[in-house]
Design goal:
Length: 633
């Protein structure tokens, strides 16, 4: 059969039946099924990536909370280190004693971020016997404060295999070190597993050398440290902690009974603190809510197949409506994704305020919790960005704008900033804002950002109080030795630059020890507090009053000051101290010995000025009266 005849036969068959109309539904069905399969594959990949991002964000947040808790515990040891530097070494050669450490522990504002801290143990450095032909010092464990009391016969810490590397690292670096996980039951703490923070304390000598004198050990119970972090995790997520890097050889230290099933989803993050490595693992349980999103692509694919079938059946009458149906499906899919993203981020920041910023319309969508934290009325509707900035403390405007600009203009796409807003009843409250860019246009410019808002005011106040205790005497709240020396160095630098004078007054209470011995330490403490108030009342606000010993005080008169005005202040201090003091039913009368030194006449540095003031004070004490000569005494 010729080619021409065949073409004519096919033409006749085509004209006899509506082949085009019959083939169009099958073409639509096939195309719809292929699109549904591709959409199912794409959405499943997107759901998997979204789940991984959720898990990474939850694990990172848990790691940050654990790091913040470790920072808070290390700040306590840093405060103890600063406290040790403020004391004059006593006759035993110790720079810190258990009574001082106990009073410091009672004054600490321990909060939820210090969970797991079982107390502080003071470890003295003592010479020991030779071990393996090497001179091995011997460290004896003191009482644990404010724990249940004495720990029994203290062990030789250098024979504790798990604690020895931490002691060695702390000794060599001079910084806080962490021990591996160890059994705390030998410390009689009632806890089976934990670790120890080690802070070395050195004693400095006039020749510039220093010697290790003691350690401060802070045992931390792992269960008490990690349980609050686990309680903050969304339902279906659990934490495990390994001692070391990786998951093969290092033992699991929290929780001891958690065993993951084969094929169970998990994520890991490494933590390094004080020379110790940890691995934090996040396990996903079957009841984790976002896992249900993995089944949504299948439902979406089935719905797509069903829609393809319906479209194929209605193709004859709805051929022109295909474009409108696709546009509607795209809008519905986009709205569904935006809702899922907003809800997922709300789950990550449970308990915090959530905000959603549409950069194209410059519109904010916020939750009621966000409005409550920012002090925005619910009746006022949704705020705009320009309306939010006036609510922020003026000193935080520059930092907030800079962080937001860095995030938008080619930054990592995430930002985190702390700022203050007006609190109820006056004052300011600290907040933590975090966010990330979730949508960009074809050119990479950001279109949409979502984030959370957290209340961190309690943590900031606790950090400020710990910082204050590290720089001030806990009993009198005057500047301690380290802080007073820092202020004196600043004043001397200013005086040298502008050629001004300044005064240094040394005050020593007479007959304080008999009062302390007869009436007790409680009366002695009240007496010191009353004398501190009198000293502060005798000087200007720009002057500095510090306590450098048991009953010794230093007063820095910032320049310019003349010798006559300095003598007047010294006489005022002498007279105020000599006034009768009523403590309850007890009436006391004390005197003091005062020594005055002037810069630059009596000394040009801290050491010479203190020595001149000390000589003048002892001259006054020998004279039995206030004696202020022309050479500073």
């Amino acid at each position: 059969m010729s080619l021409r005849r065949r073409l004519l036969r096919w033409r006749a068959r085509w004209r006899r039946g509506p082949h085009l109309a019959q083939g169009l539904p099958w073409a639509i069905l096939l195309l719809g099924l292929m699109l549904s399969l591709g959409l199912w594959s794409h959405e499943r990949e997107e759901a998997e990536q979204a789940l991984q991002r959720d898990l990474d964000a939850a694990l990172h947040a848990a790691g940050q909370r654990l790091s913040h808790r470790l920072d808070a515990l290390q700040q306590v040891l840093s405060a103890v280190h600063a406290l040790a530097q403020t004391q004059e070494p006593v006759l035993t050669g110790r720079s810190l004693d258990e009574a001082r450490l106990g009073r410091f522990m009672e004054a600490l504002p321990l909060g939820a971020e210090h969970a797991g801290l079982e107390g502080l143990a003071l470890v003295r450095w003592m010479p020991g016997r030779a071990v393996d032909d090497k001179a091995s010092p011997r460290a004896l464990l003191g009482p644990l404060l404010p724990g249940p009391g004495q720990l029994g016969q203290p062990p030789d810490l250098w024979r504790e295999a798990l604690l020895q590397p931490a002691l060695q690292r702390a000794w060599e670096s001079g910084q806080v070190a962490l021990s591996p996980a160890l059994d705390l039951r030998s410390w009689r703490l009632g806890r089976s597993l934990g670790f120890v923070l080690v802070q070395p304390l050195f004693r400095s000598f006039p020749d510039g050398g220093r010697r290790l004198e003691s350690w401060v050990l802070a045992p931390v119970a792992l269960a008490a440290l990690m349980d609050p972090l686990q309680a903050q995790m969304p339902r279906g997520l659990s934490l495990r902690l390994f001692d070391g890097e990786g998951l093969q050889d290092p033992p699991q230290i929290y929780p001891a009974a958690a065993v993951p099933a084969r094929g169970q989803r998990h994520r890991e993050e490494r933590l390094h603190r004080g020379g110790q490595a940890w691995t934090l693992q996040l396990l996903v349980q079957p009841d984790y809510a976002p896992l249900t999103r993995l089944g949504e692509p299948l439902v979406l694919g089935l719905l797509g197949g069903l829609g393809s079938l319906l479209l194929a059946l209605l193709a004859w009458a709805l051929a022109g409506s295909r474009e409108r149906a696709q546009a509607l499906a795209q809008r519905m899919t986009r709205a569904l994704r935006e809702s899922e993203q907003r809800w997922a981020f709300a789950l990550e920041g449970a308990g915090d305020g959530v905000w959603d910023w549409d950069m194209r319309a410059d519109a904010l969508v916020t939750t009621a919790r966000w409005k409550a934290l920012m002090g925005w009325s619910l009746a006022a509707g949704e705020p705009r960005l320009v309306q939010m900035l006036p609510l922020v403390h003026p000193d935080d405007h520059v930092q907030l704008r800079q962080r937001l600009r860095d995030c938008i203009q080619g930054g990592p796409g995430t930002f985190e900033v702390e700022y203050r807003v007006r609190a109820e009843g006056g004052g300011w409250r600290w907040l933590l804002a975090r966010g990330r860019i979730v949508e960009r246009d074809e050119g990479g410019d950001p279109l949409r950002m979502i984030g959370t808002l957290s209340d961190i005011d309690a943590r900031r106040q606790s950090e400020a109080q710990i910082h204050f205790l590290a720089r001030h005497d806990p009993l009198t709240e005057l500047a301690n030795r380290a802080h007073f020396s820092e202020r004196l160095q600043q004043a001397l630098a200013h005086a040298r630059r502008y050629r001004e004078s300044l005064g240094l007054i040394l005050v020593d209470l007479d007959r304080f020890k008999p009062v302390n011995d007869i009436h007790g330490h409680a009366v002695g403490d009240e007496l010191l507090q009353a004398m501190a108030r009198r000293l502060k009342a005798a000087v200007r606000e720009t002057d500095v009053v510090g306590r450098i010993g048991g009953d010794e005080f230093l007063v820095l008169l910032c320049g310019p000051v003349s010798r006559e005005s300095a003598r007047h202040v010294a006489e005022k201090i002498y007279n105020l101290v000599a006034q009768p003091l009523q403590l309850g039913d007890l009436s006391l009368e004390l005197t003091c010995s005062v020594g005055l030194a002037m810069y630059p006449e009596d000394g040009e540095d801290e050491h010479s000025l203190k020595k001149a003031a000390d000589d003048a004070m002892y001259a006054s004490k020998r004279a039995g009266r206030l004696l202020l000569g022309t050479t500073g005494g």
